[in-house]
Amino acid sequence: MVMNSDYTKAIPDAWKNVSLVFSALGDEHRQRILLTFEPGERLNVGQIVEVSTLSRSAVSHHLKILREAGVLDSEKIGKEVYFWLNKKQIKESLTAVMDYMKSQ
Asked: For the whole model, what pTM was predicted?
């Protein structure tokens, strides 16, 4: 068997956001934040802070990283910003990796 020696090969489109998603999910606090969400639930920063051991600013920081990676979506309603899981983005990233693993 011969390895693929073309390291400079372009990353496939299906892998476009994989590194962002996996980096965002690589932190235990961000994993705990994700596990806070019940199916279909939308939460604001205050609600997450209530069940967290982190400060409001730390939770906000982690939410920003998760949102920028596409793991969470958000919407501002009045003075509050509500967050929810972006299941489509998470599934696409995991599927891209699983499809690659199945082809090996």
From this structure: 0.86
